[in-house]
Design goal:
This protein is of the alpha/beta class. It has a single domain (4-295), classed as Spore Coat Polysaccharide Biosynthesis Protein SpsA, Chain A (Alpha-Beta Complex). Helices cover 34% and strands 20% of the residues. The chain contains ten helices and ten strands. The protein has helices at 17-30, 47-55, 70-77, 97-101, 171-184, 193-203, 213-216, 243-248, 250-261, 278-295, and strands at residues 4-12, 37-42, 59-63, 105-111, 115-117, 130-139, 156-166, 209-210, 218-219, 230-232. The strands form two sheets. Strands 3-2-1-4-7-6-8 form a seven-stranded mixed β-sheet, with helices on both faces. A three-stranded mixed β-sheet has the order 5-10-9. Helix 1 links the parallel strand 1 (4-12) and strand 2. Helix 1 crosses helix 9 and helix 5 (171-184) crosses helix 6 (193-203). The model has no long low-confidence stretch (mean pLDDT 94).
C-alpha cells in the first residue's frame, strides 16, 4: 500500500470537540494546498459535530478503543499524583497512536487539542525522524513518582504536546513497547504517556531532534506567543475559559466563530467575554504615566 505523505493527529473528549474543530479549520486556512489528513480520535461525539467534521476536507474520524484492560488499569492503578485518572483524561494515551499511523503515513504530527495554529505547519515535516520540544526545566523523573530502574531519570525531559515522527523509525516495535510499559508502570505514572515516551527514547536509543519551543509549542504566556506557529494553552487557563487569554489570541476565537457558523458545539461564552482590550491597555498606560509623574 502506498503511504500518504502527512497526517496530523489529535484526540478529544466530548466537552472539547470544538477544540478539534478549531484545529481542522485552522489547518484548512493555513495549509490550503498541502496534502495532509487530520486524524481525530474520539470516544464519543455528537452526530451534529461528526457531520461537520465529515464536511471539512481532509478530516478523518476514528472512534478509539483502548486495548483490552488498559483503560481500567490506568484508572485504577494510577497514583494519586497522576494528572490523568478519569476515562476522558486518559485519552492522552491515544497519542501513542501516532506510531500506529506510520503504517499509513510517511510523517505523523501529534497535536494537543489546546492549541492555536497561527501559521503554515508544512515545515514540521523537515524535523525528525523523532522530533519534539523540551520539557525544561523538568527531568524525566518528573513524569514518575519513583525512579524506574534501568533508565536515566535525571536527564532533561521532553514534552509530548507536539511530536513529529517518520516511518524510518521502528514504529511497530515502539508501539507495542509503549503500551506494555504504560500498563506495567501505571502505578508510578504522574504525567501519562509523556513519561512512557521519555523512557521509550532511551529504550530504543533515539536522540530526539528538539524543535524550537518558542515557534512550535509556545506556551501562551511567553513573549513570542503572538508570532509562534503553534501556541499551547498548557495550563488550566485555556483560551476558552480565561478572558485575558481569549482576548490575547483573537485568531483562535475568529476560527471558533467559523466553527459555530457550521453548527458546531460551543463552550460557555460567559467565561471569556471576547472584546478588544486596546482601550483598557491605553487607559492603564495613562494611569501608569500619571502615577510615575507624581512620584518623580
Amino acid at each position: 500500500m502506498k503511504k500518504k505523505p502527512l497526517a496530523f493527529a489529535v484526540s478529544v473528549s466530548p466537552p472539547l470537540t470544538f477544540a478539534a474543530g478549531n484545529i481542522a479549520l485552522s489547518l484548512k486556512k493555513q495549509m490550503p494546498r498541502r496534502d495532509y489528513d487530520l486524524v481525530i480520535f474520539y470516544l464519543e461525539m455528537s452526530a451534529s459535530d461528526m457531520a461537520i467534521f465529515k464536511s471539512i476536507p481532509r478530516c478523518r474520524l476514528i472512534k478509539y478503543k483502548f486495548p483490552a484492560g488498559m483503560a481500567e488499569t490506568l484508572i485504577s492503578k494510577s497514583p494519586t499524583q497522576a494528572r490523568f485518572r478519569t476515562p476522558y483524561d486518559i485519552m492522552t494515551f491515544v497519542r501513542l497512536e501516532i506510531l500506529a499511523l506510520l503504517s499509513e503515513y510517511r510523517t505523523v504530527v501529534a497535536l494537543d487539542a489546546d492549541i492555536a495554529i497561527q501559521g503554515d505547519l508544512s515545515e514540521m515535516t523537515q524535523f525528525g525522524p523523532f522530533a519534539i520540544t523540551t520539557d525544561a526545566p523538568w527531568a524525566v523523573q518528573n513524569n514518575f513518582t519513583a525512579p524506574v530502574p534501568g533508565y536515566e531519570m535525571d536527564v532533561p525531559g521532553v514534552c509530548a504536546s507536539i511530536i513529529v515522527v517518520h516511518d524510518a523509525l521502528p514504529y511497530q516495535a515502539m508501539y507495542k513497547w509503549c503500551h506494555f510499559k504504560a500498563v506495567q508502570l501505571a502505578p508510578f505514572l504522574r504525567n501519562g504517556e509523556q513519561g512512557i515516551l521519555n523512557l521509550m527514547l532511551q529504550e530504543f536509543r533515539i536522540t530526539p531532534q528538539l524543535m524550537p519551543l518558542e515557534v512550535w509549542q509556545c506556551i501562551s504566556w511567553r513573549a513570542e506567543a503572538n508570532v509562534a506557529r503553534i501556541v499551547h494553552f498548557g495550563t488550566e487557563k485555556k483560551v476558552w475559559c480565561t478572558r485575558n487569554i481569549c482576548n490575547a489570541f483573537p485568531e483562535w476565537y475568529r476560527i471558533h466563530r467559523e466553527w459555530l457558523k457550521l453548527g458546531g458545539s460551543d463552550f460557555d461564552q460567559r467565561l471569556v467575554n471576547p472584546r478588544n482590550i486596546l482601550q483598557d491597555l491605553d487607559e492603564l498606560d495613562a494611569l501608569t504615566a500619571t502615577h510615575l509623574a507624581k512620584i518623580a
